[in-house]
Amino acid sequence: MLNLLSNIFFVLIKPFAINVLKKGNYPKDAIDRKCGIIPEQGFSSDDDVIMFHGVSVGEAVALENLIKTARNEFPDSKIVMTTGTWTGQDIAKKKLGDSVDLITYFPADFPCVIEKFLDKINPKTVFIAETEIWPFFAKECKKRNINLYIINGRISDSTFKSYETFKYIFKYFLNFYTGILTQSEDDNNKFLKLGANPDTTKVMNNLKFDIKKPLVDFEFDKADNKVMLAGSTHAGEDEIVLNVFKNLKQNNKDLKLILAPRHLTRVNDIENLVKTYGFKYDLRSNNKADLNDIDILILNTLGELGKMYNFADFAFIGGSFNKTGGHNPLESIVFQKPVISGPSTHNFKDIYNIIQKAKAGFVVKTEEEFLKKATELLENSDFYNLTVQNCINVFESQQGALEYVINVIKTLRNNK
User: Fold this and answer.
1) Which residue is catalytic, options 40, 59, 115, 369?
2) Is residue 317 located within the same domain as residue 171?
3) How far, in Å, CA of 92 to CA of 136, rounded?
């Protein structure tokens, strides 16, 4: 009866939902896919299909290394990646287009849609990143004996309070899951309090920390200079960075700045802005491989930012003093370089929560707070060295999640 009522409800709200998706810039193709219509050839019940789901950009990025590793470990399997948003879909295609057999949208959680989707995809195992609890999807997976896991699971304090009110409902649906693998003991305990099975609810740590330092395949001479790197800055942030840099140089004459805009189309504007401050600068594209005779190096080349963090002493992560939501601070912390970010960090909220608790990175609300924290990192060697050690510690405490999930897949295959 519940399935029938849900399907009737879907038919009634479908026109409204389609209109909302159109206003959200979703193309018709995306809307069709959310309704379970997949134009590509599907997979048979004989295929070993592993499906990964990450709702948006942050989750898709977190799954990248796991999916690429799964591709290498299980070459005979079919791998499907789904997302819930068009931005997640875009990043998945860019990062995983060559690693998976199909990228599509996760179906709307209505029985008639889910049945159509699962008939087409035929997954043996489904991994859903973080905390997306879709009751009808979980129920149908259980009915079809599909292994269903939450991985990298987390529940914020505010969300937990909301869920706790309906914990008896959550207990019913959570027990459809084969396993719930969480980022931390705290998250693990929250799932248990909601009624998850203690035998299958375990801590796996955080996938987003399972990254390696990129190979630095070029030489760059920073000499004895201290270096602040401002990575992936957006319009309006360069002025903040330059103001802070100007103030820092009053007591730190040897301080240099590497300024890396998120979009290279803004390089000319940044050059003009730097000139108004009177700083000497050069462009990385001029084969500039040192900081001699300049104050600022503008990084206007592709593919070098992740490696350039190696030469910084600390970094400012852009996209955080506007509504962009910030960029990945782990690109700096993997090189044991502390980070400072503005208040907009929602794209990597969970990572910032972890690194702030570990005191490996700092979120500031204003330009004045930015200056104060940067000054402390530059002028208090004990504080700086402790923060660097915190960068090391937070990685050591969080890694191992990728191997954990790969071992889950191996165990499932061995138990066939």
Assistant:
1) 59
2) no
3) 25
Residue-wise pLDDT tens digits, 290-301: 999 999 999 999
Q: Domain tally for the chain?
A: 2
Grade residue 237 by pLDDT with cuts at 50, 70 and 90.
very high
For residue 250, the domain's CATH number is: 3.40.50.2000
94-109 tens-digit pLDDT:
999 999 999 999 998 8
219 included as an active-site residue? no
**What sections of 197-265 are H helices per DSSP?**
237-249
| Rounded distance between C-alpha atoms, residue 310 and residue 327, angstroms | 17
Q: Residue 130 carries which side chain, given as an amino acid letter?
A: E
Look up the pTM and report it.
0.80
Q: Which residues pair with 229 in a beta bridge?
A: 258, 315
- Quick one: average pLDDT of 146-152? 97
**Given CA atoms 343, 344, 345, 349 in this order, what sign does their dihedral have?**
positive
Domain that holds residue 173: 32-210+399-414
- Report yes or no: 228 and 242 within 8 Å, Cβ to Cβ: no
CA pair distance 337, 328, nearest whole angstrom: 13
What band does 132 get if pLDDT is binned at 50, 70 and 90? confident
